[in-house]
């Protein structure tokens, strides 16, 4: 299951992580975000132990959204060793998101 992150744990879980992390910036009222929810959950199960997959509710964590210039959602940021290596904006298919995950994080 994708881990819910907030401003108090983001630094430790993502920025100080020595591995690969995919973070879905979303909000409950966002239609495309609701489409991406099950896709992100499926990938979190499939890549458990290989890639940390997390979610950040932008309504509850506006400072994080601002820090990473999240202007539209869903925004999916790919982090490697604490640095953003790729950003995907908008909804997409599970096949496409998995291909991006493999390309940038594995």
Low-confidence stretches: none
Shape: globular
Number of helices: 4
The tally of strands reads 5
Percent in helix = 25-40%
Cα radius of gyration in angstroms: 12 Å
Ends apart, CA distance between termini: 19 Å
Topology of this protein?
Elements lengths: L2 E3 L4 H6 L4 E7 L4 H16 L5 E6 L4 H6 L7 E6 L2 E7 L4 H12 L1
Tell me what the structure shows:
The chain has 106 residues and is α/β, with parallel strands linked by helices. It is 38% helix and 27% strand. It has a 5-stranded mixed β-sheet with strand order 1-3-2-4-5. A hairpin with a 2-residue loop joins β4 (75-80) and β5. The longest helix is centred in the middle third of the chain and has 16 residues, at 31-46.
Give a short summary of the structure:
By secondary structure, the protein is of the alpha/beta class.
Features:
about 110 residues, alpha/beta, Glutaredoxin, five-stranded mixed sheet, 4 helices, 5 strands, about 40% helix
